[in-house]
Amino acid sequence: MEQLRLAQNIFILQALNETPVPPLENSIDRYAACHACSPNRVLSLVHERRLVEILTFWAASSDDPRKVIALCVEEKKNGQVMVIRLAVNHGNLDQVQAGFNVMKATLENAVALNNVHLAQHLKTLRRQIVALNQNRILARLRSRHARIKKKKEAKRKLAPWMMKLAEQMMLTPSPTILNTRQDLYTRIKA
């Protein structure tokens, strides 16, 4: 019943307009140029975009291309609150969220003290960023201290399977191999 209704709707839409309107170009760069100095925003779109790129880089705790982290920044209307949302397709975000909360506390502390000890706060912030990405940094440096999950189990399971296959191939040679051996033997005798 639903498929019939869907087919009817498609037919009616097609009768109204044979071809859909082509999509319009909606460039973010053009939007940023038009709304660069919006009075409703504290951050410009260019700064917001750069912030998202930096935070996403910090949040990426693995070099595995299959583990993707998405991040967006939402500025509230009053300009006093910024919401950072994280999503991941594989794994857990608890460590990243905890690291971001520690960095947030450091930045809030720097603002509360009116940037009195700004150099010390920046040094603390750098240490927190390195701590959040320590394993990825060590892995890129090829350090023996990096916690890399190796796939040894898969290799161990593969090796016996390959050995059995090789044994079967050696014990039961194909007819072409037998014929080739026989041809070589007769040519050597002759």
Q: Tell me the structural class.
A: mainly alpha
Compute the separation of the termini in Å: 80 Å
Largest sheet at a glance? Answer: 2 strands, antiparallel
Overall outline: flat
Low-confidence runs: none
Mean pLDDT: 76
Order of helices and strands: HHHEEHHHHH
Number of separate strands: 2
How would you sum up this structure, described in words?
The chain is mostly helical. It is built from eight helices and two strands. It has helices at 2-16, 28-34, 45-59, 94-112, 118-132, 134-140, 152-171, 175-189, and strands at residues 69-75, 82-88. It has a two-stranded antiparallel sheet. A hairpin with a 6-residue loop joins β1 and β2. α4 packs antiparallel against α5 (118-132). The protein is flat. The N and C termini lie far apart (80 Å).
